[in-house]
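Appendix B. Chain record.
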Amino acid sequence: TVDKNTNKKNLQFLCEKIKMDYSEFSNLIICFYSSDPIGKKLAAGNSEAVSIENQKQSWLAMYTYNIVEGEYFDDNPSSYLGHF
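Structure tokens predicted for this chain:
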């Protein structure tokens, strides 16, 4: 979890740092949630107890990496929530 006001560049830098620190892994998925109680619930995998609207506000960013597809960073990963 991170401060809700953390900017995109800092989150991307943190993703790069984590990728380098865990270079033995060929696939990574990193999700950033706000450091408030809702974000901490989401980070712990307890999304059932959180409304879609609160999830949208607390899921801040997502980063994936694998050798085939490369890097992907999304600073609005919840944009699809509630559409299905």
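Further analysis of this model is presented in Appendix C.
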